[in-house]
Amino acid sequence: MPLVRIALRKGKSEEYRRALADGVHQAMIEAIDAPPQDRFQIITEHSANDLIYDPSYLGIERGDDIVMVQITLSAGRKPPQKRKLYQRMAELLAKNPGLRPQDLMINLVETAWENWSFGNGEAQYTK
Q: Which domain holds residue 28?
């Protein structure tokens, strides 16, 4: 059920973007039990003027390789699961494609189960 949006600066290779998408999905499988086939992701690239962030908010030194990941998912995950997701995603993306953990921002947006339709004009989770 997660819908993932990954925003990054323009200029990264297709392999880099795919590694981001793969790492985010793998972290969700491992940390929050997302089904392997439940994969819906949107990757957007932005110019330097269109990707705005504070380079030192909360004492974390971010660089121009910042990646912002927003995951919309059904409500119900406990804080330990969410912390595991953040940690595992940072670990996986540090390995491939080499994203510094300081350059990874993650935001979870929780929604009710009835707010999903995966096609056919149906609310599959409310049957």
A: 3-126
